[in-house]
Amino acid sequence: MLCFAxxxxxxxxxxxxxxxxxxxxxxxTGKHGHAKVHLVGIDIFTNNKYExxxxxxxxxxxxxxxxxxxxxxxxxxxxxxxxxxxxxxxREDLKxxxxxxxxxxxxxxxxxxxxxxxxxxxxxxxxxxAIKTNTALDx
Length: 139
Fold this sequence. Notes:
Blueprint: E1 11-14, E2 17-26, E3 36-43, E4 49-55, E5 66-75, E6 80-84, E7 90-95, H1 99-110, E8 115-122, E9 125-133
């Protein structure tokens, strides 16, 4: 995608990592040519901050990011999650995430809450990035 066509809250590859754009600014064209775009992005898996500057007419790689919600069934002793698709199939290949999301997921699950996990998938990596209480079963 052309650099000037990128937008805040969109996705872009910075330093080889899939990032969400949190800040963007464009400098004026200089004496010798192109306007430059300054991008600041947060890695969607590690929350690391990356910055890059590129000419506005250059192409930037944009990752294909897929977002899916799964119902949390169980957390194993070794930290793997048992998640259920909408169609009833299970997957047990994702680990409990580090940090605040993992801590609140563990706490809410231990308190008996019915949870939905939001999983982002991009560039061969997958990670639980958010949780919410499943309200569909309360009705």
